[in-house]
Amino acid sequence: MAAVFLVTLYEYSPLFYIAVVFTCFIVTTGLVLGWFGWDVPVILRNSEETQFNTRVFKKQMRQVKNPFGLEITNPSSASITTGITLTTDCLEDSLLTCYWGCSVQKLYEALQKHFYCFRISTPRALEDALYSEYLYQEQYFIKKDSKEEIYCQLPRDTKIEDFGTVPRSRYPMVALLTLADEDDREIYDIISMVSVIHIPDKTYKLSCRILYQYLLLAQGQFHDLKQLFMSANNNSTPSSSSSPEQKNTDRSLLEKAGLSETEVEPPEENSKDCVVCQNGTVNWVLLPCRHTCLCDGCIKYFQQCPMCRQFVQESFALCSQKEQDKDKLKSL
């Protein structure tokens, strides 16, 4: 009907037809600008082009010193029956408290209590927050700056061979590191570290590893300690000598547990050179992929990670320019 009207109007008077169409265009444009303003949505733009033009924000970071260090010695020999050996490296005298068979639900409730209620700065505080929902406890005194090997094992009279099928209600072990001296808690922002450790048993044979580590701050926050990924050196050799069959078994068990293999695999020997120019020192961490692969000179040219091609939402520097200058002076 409208087409017939326009054709009839054009036959009657071409000039009048053009004037009517132009008036309709002006009215439509006015309505669109009045509704959206000048920010008219672009619906034909490619999503990749939109993301590429998005500015990468540099995240402001605050450097804090972590007084705690914990790793597993000989993880291939660890099990529920034979025990586990932990190596500690602490800047101050500390207490290592190990909770066997700790309740998963109570642990995360305890972390929330650290944020909302009271600070978990001592083993007693964590035990109160857990409501003693664990099977066995061990405690050791750790001297400062001494890499001690601590052997932990369940008593034989507990007769525990496994912690059930996945998903589990208990973690095999939760290790808590706290500062032994009360005065030291006033010096450090980080007052304790909680490590969730998987230990293979009769039912679940995934190799021994640290699943999660949480840093608890004096201000009430707690942060999940994440691994950074750097480019592997061509001359490096894998740190683990596991057989392909063992790796395939671990991969299938990780999928059942809902864990990403890249987050829990032991790191390889890493290169400290920028992956782009191969000259500058790596100094920038890209988020959310956590690849540490760019130097100060190359970071400004990339909106996508050069290693995994994921779009970069934020980035932060590992060292400030002043710290880098100090390191250069020391090396000279």
Automatic annotation (TrEMBL):
<dbReference type="InterPro" id="IPR013083">
    <property type="entry name" value="Znf_RING/FYVE/PHD"/>
</dbReference>
<keyword id="KW-1133">Transmembrane helix</keyword>
<feature type="transmembrane region" description="Helical">
    <location>
        <begin position="15"/>
        <end position="38"/>
    </location>
</feature>
<feature type="domain" description="RING-type">
    <location>
        <begin position="274"/>
        <end position="309"/>
    </location>
</feature>
<keyword id="KW-0256">Endoplasmic reticulum</keyword>
<dbReference type="InterPro" id="IPR042496">
    <property type="entry name" value="CGRF1"/>
</dbReference>
<feature type="compositionally biased region" description="Low complexity">
    <location>
        <begin position="233"/>
        <end position="243"/>
    </location>
</feature>
<dbReference type="InterPro" id="IPR001841">
    <property type="entry name" value="Znf_RING"/>
</dbReference>
<dbReference type="GO" id="GO:0005634">
    <property type="term" value="C:nucleus"/>
</dbReference>
<keyword id="KW-0862">Zinc</keyword>
<dbReference type="GO" id="GO:0008270">
    <property type="term" value="F:zinc ion binding"/>
</dbReference>
<keyword id="KW-0338">Growth arrest</keyword>
<protein>
    <recommendedName>
        <fullName>Cell growth regulator with RING finger domain protein 1</fullName>
    </recommendedName>
</protein>
<keyword id="KW-0863">Zinc-finger</keyword>
<dbReference type="GO" id="GO:0030308">
    <property type="term" value="P:negative regulation of cell growth"/>
</dbReference>
<keyword id="KW-0479">Metal-binding</keyword>
<keyword id="KW-0131">Cell cycle</keyword>
<dbReference type="Pfam" id="PF13920">
    <property type="entry name" value="zf-C3HC4_3"/>
</dbReference>
<comment type="function">
    <text>Able to inhibit growth in several cell lines.</text>
</comment>
<keyword id="KW-0812">Transmembrane</keyword>
<dbReference type="GO" id="GO:0005783">
    <property type="term" value="C:endoplasmic reticulum"/>
</dbReference>
<dbReference type="GO" id="GO:0051726">
    <property type="term" value="P:regulation of cell cycle"/>
</dbReference>
<keyword id="KW-0539">Nucleus</keyword>
<feature type="region of interest" description="Disordered">
    <location>
        <begin position="233"/>
        <end position="252"/>
    </location>
</feature>
<keyword id="KW-0472">Membrane</keyword>
